[in-house]
Amino acid sequence: MAHSGIGIDWHAFAPGRRLILGGVEIPHEQGLQGYSDADVLAHAITDALLGAAGLGDIGQHFPDTDERWKDADSMELLGVVVARVGRIEHVDCTVMMERPKLSPHREAIRASLEQALGCTVNVKATTGEGMGFVGRGEGVAALAVATLID
Ligand SMILES: [Zn+2]
């Protein structure tokens, strides 16, 4: 039986921060604001996995009121969840970002995520077409769908 879960996340750009997507650092003049390393893609995938497994959401497991998760490596948190959810069949995800272009980094992100998840991963990219917080370059959003099989 297959179970699917959806995850969505967004973080605002801020100066003096790193831009990390799916565990891959992307060179850019600013990064994402957040309590952890603000890896918006890792967070969306973590939520998708928790959803598919019926285990709530990322905020319940890694609350931002807990000092342990300050500046946390989100790929490590993802690894904790991967170990709990069982066999992952596939993950599909979309990064919504105006700048920088994701395409030069897409393969590195896919490889990083496939190693962490142990399944096939598809990484898609889109922009905000100049609209909304993504389009104005104020932040990045990510969507993910994870499928588990038992
Ligand atoms: Zn997040």
Topology:
Layout: E1 2-14, E2 20-21, E3 24-25, E4 31-32, H1 40-53, H2 58-61, H3 74-85, E5 88-96, H4 106-117, E6 120-126, H5 132-135, E7 139-149
Parallel strand pairs: 5-6
Antiparallel strand pairs: 1-4, 1-7, 2-3, 5-7
Helix pairs in contact: 1-3
This protein binds zinc ion.
Can you give me a brief rundown of this structure?
The protein has helices at 40-53, 58-61, 74-85, 106-117, 132-135; strands at 2-14, 20-21, 24-25, 31-32, 88-96, 120-126, 139-149. It is of the alpha+beta class and 150 residues long.
Order of helices and strands: EEEEHHHEHEHE
CA-based shape: globular
Bound molecules: zinc ion
Structural class estimated from helices and strands: alpha+beta
Question: Residue-averaged pLDDT, rounded?
Answer: 96
Across the major sheet, the strand order is: 4-1-7-5-6
User: Total helix count?
Assistant: 5
Number of strands: 7
Helix content: 25-40%
State Rg.
14 Å
Question: What does this molecule look like?
Answer:
With 150 residues, this protein is of the alpha+beta class. The protein has five helices and seven strands. The chain has helices at 40-53, 58-61, 74-85, 106-117, 132-135, and strands at residues 2-14, 20-21, 24-25, 31-32, 88-96, 120-126, 139-149. The strands form two sheets. It has a five-stranded mixed sheet with strand order 4-1-7-5-6. A two-stranded antiparallel sheet has the order 2-3. A hairpin with a 2-residue loop joins strand 2 and strand 3 (24-25). Helix 1 packs parallel to helix 3 (74-85). The longest helix has 14 residues, at 40-53. The N and C termini lie close together (6 Å).
